[in-house]
Amino acid sequence: MAYDLFIAARHLTCVTLVAIATSVSLAALDTAPADASPGVSPFTGRTLVPYIIGGQESSISQFPWQVFVLLEAEGKAASCGGSILDASHILTASHCVDHEGTTTPYPAEDLIVIAGASEVVVGVGVSPATAQARGVKSLRTHPYYTVLPNIKDDVAVLELSSPLELSAARNAQAIALVPTGATPAPGTPLSVSGYGKEEGAEGPGHEPNGKLYSAALTAIGSDACRNSVGINSAVLLCTQSASSATCQGDSGGPLTEGAPAVQVGTVDFGPKECPVGQPDGFSNLAAPEVRAFVEGSEAPPVAARPVTPPVLKAVGAAPVDFSPLTCEPGGWSEGPSFTYTFQVDNSTAQVLQSGPGNVFTPPATVVGAPIVCIVQASNPGGVSTLRSGTTPPIAADTAPPVSSIVGRKCRLQTCTLKITASDPNAVALTLQATANFQVLAKCPLKKHKRRGSRAKRPICHRTATVSMPVVPVSAGVYQASATRLPYERVEFVVAVGNAAGLRQLAQQFTAITLHKPKPKKKHGHR
Known about the structure:
The protein is mainly beta.
């Protein structure tokens, strides 16, 4: 059965019981005494559902939507958790009801659901006496559910043979599901409950006590989780805790948020041997691909799947400030639209830019920091998240731009320059072009000359400078023009700088002498 299955050194969090000589029947549960002695382990001689690692013992009245799901088949039994959708339907994990390593479910009649129990004693009884046990009439597993190579869409809905009594007296209550699309943001406090193992190790000394436990977890970003576990993030929700974790036996159980609680996920998988401080995976009930199935669809919309990873490209051999970084989204199925988030890839995780634009120009303030691009691929099935590789630390730009005057055309008193300019790191450029020429003007008065002196001031030459507006013509090509230039020698100078403050070492220069056109000869009869 699928409860001992490990995928990429990760566990599916359902637990398999040892072979039992006689079947665990619904009748046995219904008639078993509910007041087993609290001083005696109800699982003596059996290997059954241990509990959440690092959690605290809890009453079912705190989590009245929690149920115990028992599968008994082929001389063995296995247990999982689940949650109450309504009086007749239970939400659990697909791997809780399938044959080991397959997506083929067991017959519905092999399953038993127990609601309202703080403690489950298979073959003996449940506590409190108000707990209810029901058989399963039918079951549905997600049509896109897969186990290998990566588990996804790991949810199943069980229809009970008869409705539960939902009341405070019976400690049974349906739980609302999170709104579609409202995946908990990273850092959101969450809660999980279940009857799963307290220790990840196997063998004697690691047996359960059959009681309900709960733990506080924190949502983590789907990009970080996907990077850790390699599973499509559109249908995945991950949590982490420094002191607790889910383990075998918790599968299918509810992950909840807030008060009053709404269910945001079902327990799916975690690292082998259930260490704390590592990501635990949950089926994301906010994802339309998952949610539509839970609500009855047998053909839910499919979220985008990555085919090739995103790539973050720099212009030069290494990224520098003011040089654009381009995030290529990679290949995706299902035709999604994209959002790109550029952030510092260190403990600060500072977001630098987020939106539909896939080009980011790092400012000087991020020099020394590595940058990563996170691609969100959205379609009607949900939002998948994938990270690019991380850049080396951003360096300060040291490569100046270059320019050249490659053409000059003058007609009468108007001249136009053709200029090429480029930057080795594609840093934004600023071009300045001027036309310089000599003009005649009265020389300035000397200090010893009186203002009232009638002596004529000599004529001096001075240089006049006229700015030439520069306009782009095509990629790397610019044009600068000046009009009403004098009929004499005119020098043209071009200077280029970039956004990093670097300038071309040598200005570009060209000169021409403009001549008045010769007067046209008059033609006529003598």
